[in-house]
Amino acid sequence: MSDPITQAGAPTPRSGNDKPGSGDDKPRPGMSERSIGVLGDRKKARLDELARASASDRGGVSLVRDAVRRLRRNPVAIVGASIVGLFILVAIFAPLIAPHDPVQRFDELTKNLTVDSIPGATAGHPFGSDPLGRDFLSRMIYGARQTLFVGVLATLIGLSLGVLIGAIAGAFGGWVDVVLMRLTDVMLALPSLLLAITLVAMASRSSQWTVIFAVAIVSVPIFARLLRGSMLAQRESDHVLAARALGVKERNIVLRHMLPNSLTAVIVQATLTFAVAILDAAALSFLGLGDPDINRAEWGLMLGVDGQRYFEVRPELAYYPALAIIVVALGFTLLGEAMREAIDPKNRR
Amino acid sequence: MSLLDVRDLSVVFQRRGERPFTAVDKVSFTVEPGQTVGLVGESGCGKSVTSLAIMGLLPKRGNKVGGEVLFDGTDLLKLRPNDMRDRRGREISMIFQDPLSSLNPVIPIGVQVAEVLERHQGRDRKQALREARDLLDAVGIPDPQRRLSEYPHQISGGMRQRALIAIALACKPRLLIADEPTTALDVTIQAQILTLLKQLVDDTGTALVMITHDLGVVAGLCDTVNVLYGGKVVERARRHELFAHARHPYTHGLLNSVPRLDSPRGERLHAIRGSVSDNIPWTEGCAFAPRCDNVVDACLEGPPPLEPTATGGDLRCNNPVSEEVTVR
Ligand SMILES: Nc1ncnc2c1ncn2[C@@H]1O[C@H](COP(=O)(O)OP(=O)(O)OP(=O)(O)O)[C@@H](O)[C@H]1O
Ligand SMILES: [Mg+2]
């Protein structure tokens, strides 16, 4: 079919049917020049080909892969991801990496143990002993495991509850939204660590689960507000309006449009929350509100109990756990920030 | 009976503590089956609000809609929300200005097309995807099978608008409202998209309401044109009437502000004086009066009525551009 727009001034071709104003229309010459395609057909075909070629370069790349590609070009992301990756590997393969059982007391260590001397590096124990004659290096390595466990669980629980609350508030709006958001306001008003301490103190018996739960609860309002905020923004978005124009049902507007498009921000926040969860869990242990099980190797506990008590005797007992906590938390923060940048639609393409 | 008969449609925005603002003021127009009707006017004259009101897509709060929107004899404004929802996408579709933001960024193109078919035609996913591929093919998207699984940001702007057209026309609606569908695209792509739209509505017999501020678009596409100013229709005419003998000074000005190849060298373009912000309210006179070259006393004494013209159109003007004088 010939192109009514590109044929300036020519009678507009119409297909078959006899509508008012069809036959003898002659738009005044010059009227339609504004939208004339100035390229010849051959050139157009060539451009189409180019466009197709450059489009196929990106063919099959999903949203996620697109973000990953941008992450790989960002040194901050690489540093963060390396730290996080190393940490996760150590945590998973702790039994293979650690030279010894983390709870076993070694005679060669205990026999040199006194109140004001804890053995340093010796043959077979490169990091020396902890105050109970256990291999310090092995305990550090197993500590990664415990930290990962607490961090992952706390973040997952916090994320699930937060997403649920935020999604309900964002989807229903009205008084449901008001009530839920006032609730999160109250939680946010308390300093997170203080809230965690209160929760742990309220639990009759402290275990690693009270720590996990306390740290998780603290992150709930952050996830909830974040999700609700982006759900509300999504509600006003063009693609939601376009979906409404197609008759999409309200349930699917929420589940297929508003929610999935709000989740990216939440995933980034999860990475950042992980860092906070590690720090909070360590702080609770440090304050003696953590898991009372003395056999469990946990960085916060090692720092809080052994590190503090024997700091003058053997400062490494404090340095190494503290360093591990900081580096891992930093790694997650760097990665989270880089991810935040990578998924920002402003940086897309 | 007209397919779409908009009668005295009014939209008044009213925010708490603010003065009510009449964005659409008793607008009436009709669309016959298979016809293409243009709504033309400057930014802010109420084109989008009119289309959203017809679709029932204005926000629930903060506005008041008056008048009637008869679609095949049924007043859409009186339908229950669920009934209206069932018609959207099936009997009336709409395409928006920005093709990237109108698509859901996290759902592959093919699924977005398929979901309309599932929603309105009860297809299962597999069947819907097969039809989606054919639809993408029909709107000229190359390699449609592969596009099915691609995301909106991976394809070009022109292709996105093609995909949106495929989605809008998937259920063969009887009416398509296109709100500046080419404004966000390159000039060359604009022409392609308009050609495609024209071809599709002609092939399927879909009536088209074309919203635009670009008279070039009108020239190539519309059977009848409604010129809006300040929320009111100021002139309505068949396309060739409008281009040959624009009667309203505003329409006249719009036509003269378009560059033309046949105008003498060195002649300057005539821009319309002032801006929309100079409007006076319609209750006090003609909203266009402060910018009008033909203004007479009567223009400031009350709103001029919309009256039929000898050529079968309608005109709202006390002192129209004389019929003998053609444009410029
Ligand atoms: N939700 C709203 N609340 C208040 N005023 C609104 C709202 N939506 C639109 N308006 C006002 O209604 C008027 C008409 O807007 P509309 O979007 O219909 O203009 P338009 O003709 O589509 O212009 P454009 O060419 O820029 O798209 C504008 O003055 C606008 O400010
Ligand atoms: Mg608009």
UniProtKB/TrEMBL annotation, chain A:
Residues 144-336 form the ABC transmembrane type-1 domain. One of its GO terms (biological process) is transmembrane transport. Keywords: Cell membrane, Membrane, Transmembrane, Transmembrane helix, Transport. It is found in: Cell membrane. Residues 1-39 are annotated as: Disordered. It holds the Pfam family BPD_transp_1. This is Dipeptide transport system permease protein dppC. It comes from Micromonospora lupini str. Lupac 08. The gene is dppC.
TrEMBL record, chain B:
It holds the Pfam family ABC_tran. PROSITE patterns: ABC_TRANSPORTER_1, ABC_TRANSPORTER_2. Keywords: ATP-binding, Cell membrane, Membrane, Nucleotide-binding, Transport. Belongs to the ABC transporter superfamily. It comes from the Bacteria. This is Oligopeptide transport ATP-binding protein oppD. One of its GO terms (biological process) is peptide transport. GO terms for cellular component: plasma membrane. It is found in: Cell membrane. Residues 6-255 form the ABC transporter domain. It is a peripheral membrane protein. GO terms for molecular function: ATP binding; ATP hydrolysis activity. The keyword Transport applies.
